[in-house]
Amino acid sequence: MLILAAVIALIWANFPNSAAREAYATISETTVGISAIHLNLSLAEWAADGLLAIFFFVVGLELKEEFTTGSLRDVRRALVPILAAVCGMIGPILVYVLIQVISGSGNYGGWAVPVATDIAFALAVLGLFGKGLPPAIRTFLMTLAVVDDLLGIVLIAVFFAGSLNFIALALAVAVIALFGFLVQKRITKAYFLWPLGILAWYLMHLSGVHATIAGVALGMVVPAIQRKSERESLTHHFASKIDFYSAGFILPIFAFFASGVNVVDTGGFREMIVDPVAMGIYLGLPLGKMLGISGGVFIMVKLFKLKLGRGINMLDIIPVSLVAGIGFTVSLLIATLSFPASDPHEPHSRIAVLVGTLLSAIVGGAVLAARSKWRNRYAVRTEIHTSMSPSD
Predict the structure, then answer these.
(1) Nearest 5 degrees, angle CA 382-CA 384-CA 387?
(2) pLDDT of the residue at 380
(3) 204 domain residue, yes or no
(4) Does residue 392 have a pLDDT over 50?
(5) What CATH number does residue 234 fall under?
(6) Signal peptide: which range, if any (predicted)?
(7) Of 210, 223, 291, 326, whose CB is crowded by the most CB atoms within 10 A?
(8) How many CA atoms lie within 13 A of 136 on its CB side?
(9) Which residues are CB-contacts of 11 (< 8 A; sequence separation ≥ 6)?
């Protein structure tokens, strides 16, 4: 659904008929809401600031589970993928900055766009093409992507906040704390929690901090420890209730509005490809991630003697680091925040995210398949050699 929505939007926004292109732009820019309370947003803004907060609530739930009962519970065991995630953010930033320096563009506004990893897409590509790799590689990628998401959220909160309204921010924190108190007491009725969640989102929106941060914060205060009387933890319970709507409706709607980049009226695809800003993004995602993650892991393993997961070696890290360049959701969001809508680099940055994600998926999938094939052949040869060896 997500890919389909993105493809439909891209085709519609670049349809040969100019009236059709204008119709898409009109829909995206249609303003809905009440200006008196600062909620007169376009439909595209409602998708990015409003609906996406529900997706980030699910992300917050997943982060809470990982920190409490999952792969991030033991920091020592998770140290390599945690540091790999940090290196995997530094790599794309360096690639982006280097391209701006070499080209002389001096436009560093999109530095944060290629830093994100889309967990769902990356794990899907790994599951499809990496069947011969050790199971620990999935844990490595998932841990890396979770930390990547967390750091991406921090970037959004710190670098893309407007002028702060500290009273609204304090009230938002108070409402989130009340939400946390209620769920800790297992008061989970929708008529209590939904109004509090919406109020927290609205206050965060008023505060100048990007409103999706409210979703993450609300998810993080939900308890992840399952009580003896409970069939499942509250984080898992809420995620299972919302995930269908998040993946099936919210993300496709966001993708529909974020991916509909009018390339035809902004100089064409060729101009986008040679734009240093776009180049920094679509090369930063696959190349920056690969260099950052693989290089960081190599240094950690060779110089600092840290251990990878069971059965993983350096040659397994390279395809996984390429797959980590699948940015999509969070990268598209950061692209819309990095440049004003009137800036010609804004549509270029969004189309560059799509190109970079596609490159990461294709190249990463191909290298994963080759590595899996080699591992399977090696396993068969080892098994044959073992079976033919004389027993004692």
Answers:
(1) 105
(2) 53
(3) no
(4) no
(5) 1.20.1530.10
(6) 1-19
(7) 326
(8) 13
(9) none
